[in-house]
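call fold(seq) -> C-alpha cells
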Amino acid sequence: MNLQTRESNMRAPTGSVTGLCSASATMFAVGMAFLGYWGVYEQGPWHTVDYVVLVLALIGFAALGSVPWIVTTPVAEEDAEKVGTARRAMALGTMLIWLAVGIAVFA
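ret:
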C-alpha cells in the first residue's frame, strides 16, 4: 500500500469541523481587535506600509471567513473531505493576520 492510498483512506478526527470553525472565528476576532487598536480611523495621511497592512489583513480575513464555508460544503463522494483544504485556508489566514500585525508593530 503506497502513501497516497493510505492517506486517502484516513478520515479527519471527530470534531475537526467544529474546531476549524471555532479557531477561524477566534482568529477573525483577534484580527478585528488588532485593526481597532491599530487605528484604521486615525487622522492623517496613510503611508504605503499602512496599505500593505490593510491588504494583508483583508486577504487574511477572507481566508479565515472562508474556512467554515469550505469545511461544511457538501461533497459528492463520502471519502472526499474538505478538512485539508480548510486547514490550509486557516493557516493562510492566520499567517497573513500575524504578518500584518508584525509589519504594523515593527514598521
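The chain is about 75% helix and 0% strand.
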